[in-house]
Amino acid sequence: MKHRVALLFLILSISTITFTKVMAQDGNSSMMQPPPTEKHPKITEINGDRLVDNYFWLREKTSPAVIAHLEAENAYAAAVMKPTEPLQEKLYTEILSHIKQTDANVPYRWGQYFYYTRTEEGKQYPIYCRTKATNAKAPEEILLDLNEMAKGQKFMAVGSFAPSDDGTLLAYSTDNTGYRQYTLQFKNLSTGELLPEKIERVDDMAWATGNKTLFYVTEDAVTKRNDKCFRHVLGTDKYDLVYEEKDELFDIGVERTRDKAVILLGAFSKTSTEFRYLPADNPNAAWKTIIARQADHEYDVEHRGNLFYLRTNKGAKNFRVVTAPVSDPAEKNWKEFVAHRPAVKVDAVDMFSDHAVLSEWENGLQQIEIVNFKTNQRHRVEFPEPVYAAGLSTNREFDATVLRYNYQSLVTPSSVFDYDMNTRQATLLKQTEVPGGFDKANYKSERVFATAADGTKIPMSVVYKRGVKLDGSAPMLLYAYGSYGIPISPTFSAGRLALLDRGVIYVIAHIRGGGELGEPWREAGRMMKKMNTFTDFIACAEHLVKQKYTSSDRLVIQGGSAGGLLMGAVTNMRPDLFKAVVAQVPFVDVLNTMLDASLPLTTSEYIEWGNPNEKAAYDYMKKYSPYDNVHKANYPAMLVKVSLNDSQVPYWEGAKFVAKIREFKTDHNPLILKVNMGAGHGGASGRYDAIHEAAFDYAFMLWQMGVAN
Predict the structure, then answer these.
(1) In the 8-state DSSP scheme, what is residue 633?
(2) Could you list the active site residues?
(3) Most Cβ neighbours (<10 Å): which of 370, 572, 603, 700?
(4) How is 313-344 classified by DSSP, letter by letter?
(5) Cβ distance 605 to 594 under 8 Å?
(6) Does residue 29 surpass a pLDDT of 70?
(7) What per-residue confidence (pLDDT) applies to 382?
(8) Cα-flanking dihedrals φ and ψ of residue 108, to 5°?
(9) Which neighbouring-strand residues pair with 194?
(10) Could you please report the per-residue DSSP string of 664-684?
(11) CA 483, 608, 59 angle in degrees (round to 5)?
(12) According to the model, what pLDDT value does residue 254 have?
């Protein structure tokens, strides 16, 4: 093995040198040759089939040959994109001009303090701060300055952030690689000193009453499944394992209810949940199960007084809400609180002392519904636009009568409101400032529908600059996700103005597999119905071309992660329909990944995609797995982006996919792989670095759309 790695390293080093010489001789990207990718077949015999993976060796992250290959790919990408560098710089400056660089978010109350983050011009990261709620003249306290913490690091992100009840201690976790592997630490906010405890691989955490005991969840070192919950008393060497989840389909999480009375320990699979609880003021108590796990029963829990409020799908596809006495929460004691409405999905329930707040989806739009316990009346918050995104913001105080929510649309910047749940008055606290001459009246947002092959109407959210001609000549960016029941809301993007102002039409396709139209929408695009996700997207693209919003030679498509799977699948299915494809951290090697139970996420995903160890699932997944369906064809231009430290979709999936397409494609369209060597699934952590990444992507898109400036 050692000799093979050395040989590969030598081969790739030579090929990189040769590639450099070619670049020096001719700056024309059409004359450049991408770095070669060696073939070393790995054969998997399964379900009566023979799966051949010629590029399996790219998984060897510690191999110098692999790193050399990825660096060569980056050099090739830079060379191909070199003519666009002036445009990239112009786009970067333009995007930055629409961002207020020194800014702060609206402070939220948490105990005796107001907490907020702020940014400063020239600095990559936010600064976490607070002021005393009882003294308007109290000075600002800086809790975490990520700019200082990020020094010497390629990446920096905060996971958990929770002050103790008395506000004297802060528990927080950080990731400095992008692998989403967090280290939990504790800071004495009175002295500014860090406590000696440092706990690795922590996901969720929750304080118990008393400011010294906490519960936290850790992940498995190999699979990254959250499987163990510990209890720790600060200042002691006791780290007690209080629960271990053995079922590989389930992850666990821990939280404290808003009224601070209960610690909840949840176990979650893609289609089933189970909760345990104990009193927050008795952290040594035994866990009690609320409702034992059952196949296809999903529920979650809120607490108020002597009742649990359960959002449950039992007998309710789109969920209903029931109450259950804490003394005996068995199903026989449930009482209906919010009945099931087939057309309305109850997405979440938030409890306050005098109100319950329901977050809902209806007709593909978000709704916020208020239940007043004193009057027993229900009403919805009203929103001004026909296409929008709305959801709860940070609401930490149980006794609050004012609800904070966020509202935005494709043309309205993110806006923070305080809503009096008794008087029904909404007060705008802040709308994100968009410098650089932005005027929402210059843009138009609408909703259109495509018809899928089976007659299903697929909604799309559309935005473009007024004056754009809908005669087929406009360039378009079509985006979608379509997995895990996750809805894609039509939100505002200041960076997107750089496209809209150049006449690009931007569209979100709300395809099946997502959650915009409730659980049936999700179910119709997962497991053995996953093909609907891809055919829905194709139907959307065809509709937009037919209705002359754009044409195939100006249509660019984009998706990331599971949306990258979508990109790979539809590109194989209809390479003629798209001018170019941008696939970010794409999940494209479906079969090989799902056959490897040692990889992060694999086992828990069996009930999202299927278990390919079973023949029926294997055969179905093989129909769409992008890596396994590459064939001889004229492929569109493609930009595939991966991150070396990605724990969710490993970098090698995109790298292998690119290598295989190069092997089979019969065109001369650019196909480039761009590797972020110091980040994870979400890309760069610094905000200026992220803008540079966006400018690169936009330059590629505009180049392919034929928009030169």
Answers:
(1) B
(2) 561, 646, 681
(3) 700
(4) -TT-TT-EEEEEETT---GGG-EEEE--BTTE
(5) yes
(6) no
(7) 97
(8) -120, 145
(9) 187
(10) HB-S---EEEEEETT-BTTB-
(11) 90
(12) 98
Q: Which amino acid is at 162?
A: A
Question: What number of other Cβ atoms are within 10 A of residue 628's Cβ?
Answer: 19
Q: Which helix (H) or strand (E) holds 444?
A: strand 443-451
Q: Note whether 274 and 288 are within 8 A (CB).
A: no
**Residue 456 main-chain phi, psi, to 5 deg:** -70, 135
Mean pLDDT computed over 539-547: 98
Of 192, 199, 156, residue with least CA distance to 174: 156
Which residue blocks in 401-547 are alpha helix, DSSP H?
A: 497-500, 519-523, 531-546
Coil/strand/helix, residue 681: coil
pLDDT in tens, 253-284: 999 999 999 999 999 999 999 999 999 999 99
User: In the numeric block, which tokens belong to residue 498?
Assistant: 């750089």
Quickly state the pLDDT bin for 708 (edges 50, 70, 90).
confident
> DSSP state, 291?
E
Q: How far apart are CA 308 and CA 662, in angstroms?
A: 56
The answer to whether 494 and 95 have CB atoms below 8 angstroms apart is yes
pLDDT of residue 11: 29
pLDDT reported for residue 488: 97
Report the distance separating Cα 229 and Cα 223, nearest Å: 16
**pLDDT for the residue 603:** 87
Asked whether 390 and 406 are in contact (CB, 8 A), the reply is yes
Report the candidate in 496, 651, 461, 668 with the shortest Cα–Cα distance to residue 564: 651
Residues near 209 by beta carbon (within 8 Å), at least 6 away in sequence: 165, 260, 280, 281, 283
CA nearest to 636, candidates 554, 549, 533, 538: 554
Alpha helices in 120-263 (DSSP H): 146-149
CB 358 within 8 A of CB 458: no
Q: How far apart are CA 516 and CA 538, in angstroms?
A: 18
Cβ-contact 396, 351 below 8 angstroms? no
Do 454 and 538 touch, CB atoms closer than 8 A? no
pLDDT score of 3 more than 80 = no
pLDDT exceeds cutoff 60 at 318: yes
> Contact 460/507 with Cβ under 8 angstroms?
yes
What is the pLDDT, as a whole number, of residue 600? Answer: 87
* Mean pLDDT of the 512-530 span: 97
Pairing of the two strands 505-509 and 476-479: parallel
Reply yes or no on whether the pLDDT at 601 is more than 90: no
In order of 223, 299, 318, 411, the CA distances from 251 in angstroms are 11, 15, 23, 38
Q: What percent of the chain has pLDDT over 90?
A: 93
CA angle centred on 7, ends 2 and 12, rounded to 5°: 125
5-24 pLDDT, tens digit per residue, is 233 322 233 233 333 333 33
- 255-268 in b/e burial notation, b at 16+ Cβ within 10 A? bbbbbbbbbbbbbb
The model's pTM: 0.94
Handedness of CA 153, 158, 162, 166 (dihedral sign): positive
DSSP annotation of 512: B
Supply angle C-alpha 77, 82, 83, rounded to 5.
130
Q: How far is CA 116 from the centre of its chain?
A: 22
Helices (H) and strands (E) in the chain, counts: 13, 39
**Band of the pLDDT at 303, cuts 50, 70, 90?**
very high
Q: Which residues contact 521 (CB under 8 A, 6 or more apart)?
A: 485, 512, 513, 514, 515
Helix 615-624, helix 531-546: angle, nearest 10: 20
Task: Tell me the C-alpha distance between 534 and 481, whole Å.
Answer: 10
- Report d(CA 350, CA 357) in Å as an integer: 5
The count of C-alpha atoms lying within 13 angstroms of the C-alpha of 501, restricted to the half-sphere facing its C-beta, is: 17
Task: Kindly report, residue by residue over 643-674, the tens digit of the pLDDT.
Answer: 999 999 999 999 999 999 999 999 999 999 99
